Amino acid sequence: MFLTPLDLRLRTITTGAREQGADLSREDLRVIQGEAPSPAALADWVTQSGLWCKAAQLTWRQLLKMTAAGAVILLMKDGTAAAMIRPDPVRNVVWLKDPEVETEQDGVAVDELRLSQLWSGEVLLIRPDRQARADNEPWDMMWIARVAMAEGAIIGDVLLGAVVLSFVSMVPAMIVMIVIDKVMSYKVLATLWMSIVLVLVVLLFEALLGYVRRQLSNIMALRLDLKMNLFVFKRLLGLPIDYFERTPTGRISYLIGQTVKVRGFVTGKLMNAILDLLNLVIVLPVLFWMSVPMAWMVVGLGGIMAMIISSFIKPVRRIYHRWLEFEVQKNIVLVETLHGIRTIKSLALEPAQRDMWDRRAADAAYWKRRLDDISNWPETLVSPFDTLMTRGVLLVGAYLSISGAEVTSGSVVAFMMIANRVSTPLVSLSKLLQDIEELRASVMMVGLVLNNRPETTTPGSGLRPRFEGGIIFRGVKFTYPGTKSRALDDISFEVPPGTVLGLVGRSGSGKSTITRLLQGINREYEGQIKIDGVDLREINLAHLRRSFGVVLQENFLFRGTVRDNLLAGRTGLTLTDAVRAARLAGAEEFIERMQFGYETMVEEGSPNLSGGQRQRLAIARALIHDPRILILDEATSALDPESEALVNANISRIAANRTMVIVSHRLSSLVDSNMIMVLDRGKMVDIGPHTQLLETCTIYRQLWQQQNRHMESFRSGARAALATSVGS
Ligand SMILES: Nc1ncnc2c1ncn2[C@@H]1O[C@H](COP(=O)(O)OP(=O)(O)O)[C@@H](O)[C@H]1O
Ligand SMILES: [Mg+2]
Asked: What is the pTM of this model?
């Protein structure tokens, strides 16, 4: 077989990527017709498979240093590529694998001169993605600590600022001491002037430092926010669909909303607490230096305050959790109401809905009040000690000075001022325990969502075969988690590529389940499912889903133009693709009649489109990337007969070159299918083309007769009429 240079290049890259743990498929490589893919495009291609990849320009010296783990692919001038096995700086050569030889061997040593004739200087560096591994870490306090610590530089700056600020903050007190003791007692004007200047300088300095500190913590909050947002959303989207089906949206959205609290806490309260602690560490020694008895008094009072506050932590925690649960309940009602607002309005269910809301809101309010009540206690009990700390100092100071200790009135006032700066941090520090409790609750709530098992733990792994569309089920049994009866019981069938397969059966017989298993939505089945002979479980999930087009009974159109909806954010597609897909789906005609054509806005819930139009748009959207397998699950069931006829008329055109699985309870739309499978309570009753089933399958015959009774009676009526007219 003759291989072009490009083939060789891609093969080298594919091999390199496989060594790093991911399978590439040429399908995913986006190339402009007639042009060789650029290094950047190649890097994109590798990145899509979940690896880390970068295109770079290297010199010989840099190449010799590339000893770290990962693949280094040299892009050659002739369009091929060679993988570097290892550099050998001692002998001043690099070992390359010969691209034309596929077998394992030592490779060839190439020196600088020889390589410069062959190599363009460009390389692709490929490594397992560290980020992807980080994405699999659980969401917990450790994760948050790690992310926060990654901002070490900023934290350092903030701490430094805080230390300086603590010292500076003591200057005014010192000045007051000097003013009282020296200036006022001995009436020294020069010292007063100096003090005034110092006071002004300190004022400015304090303001400036405060500004910098707020600025830094804002930056940190932003960065943390960004990281959390990326992480949370990625993880959320990585959860399997059955998690979302099991969990009310209102619960998920409320729990996820707690990330805001976590972020706010880490950059707000926690940061402040650490700064307060620093302040204490710096100010306390100064207090002891000024007066040991007074300093002990401050510490003793602080200790009592801390004890009071910590004794309330447990009861507060209990009530806090109760209150949270009712807040979640409230949010569930809210989100459900918004989702079902059409139904609620049209059935005039507002009073019932309002009632439900009121009850939840009342419960939440009750627990919130209890929470407020109990939280009020520690603050109330602490406040006398808080006041005592500053005023008591005055009394103790007065006593000390009467009893003849070395205490000036200036130092008592200064002590009071500084002690004032200690009591606030002490109170907030002892409150910190309670705040940390809240943080833990928030982290746990977000974790309840994010720490569920994701669909795949290794996004880049798995095979990416090119599909033709042959489907095999062998002894497939499946039970939905949390249910007892089997949704599918021993299903076996086999259809070649290009088949139109119809699925019929009563509601609940397992038709949708078959399509869900095919798309890898539910993966815990027994037996074997193969596509083109490849076991479904071995196929890369993203690749699998991309190879399918799916149209359901109800399809969600996004807010945006018709074109946006058709392209659905897929890269590399243009308006031409949208028009082609629309034509195939029979949607072109009405799109062009709309005022702005493909630029017409589709609103949320698409009220400006009829059911038939919406459905044809959904079909066009499913066809846009020319999927090998198209699934229509009751796609036409909700349509009026005219729209249904329109869609059905296009099906044979749509079916060309692809496998189709059509679920429909209207047998008339399946008559032309190559194969029809009849399901009943999860079991396959029969499979075959329409005419055969009419003879062999009782259930099918009954269904057919039910649906076509009017036709039968019409025909027999016509026959009778004919007979009488002939007879007369
Ligand atoms: N997400 C789910 N969780 C639990 N049970 C389900 C779920 N989806 C379907 N089922 C159950 O599985 C069976 C088959 O359902 P389905 O395949 O949707 O039937 P059909 O599409 O033929 O109407 C039914 O008994 C249904 O109640
Ligand atoms: Mg169904």
From this structure: 0.69
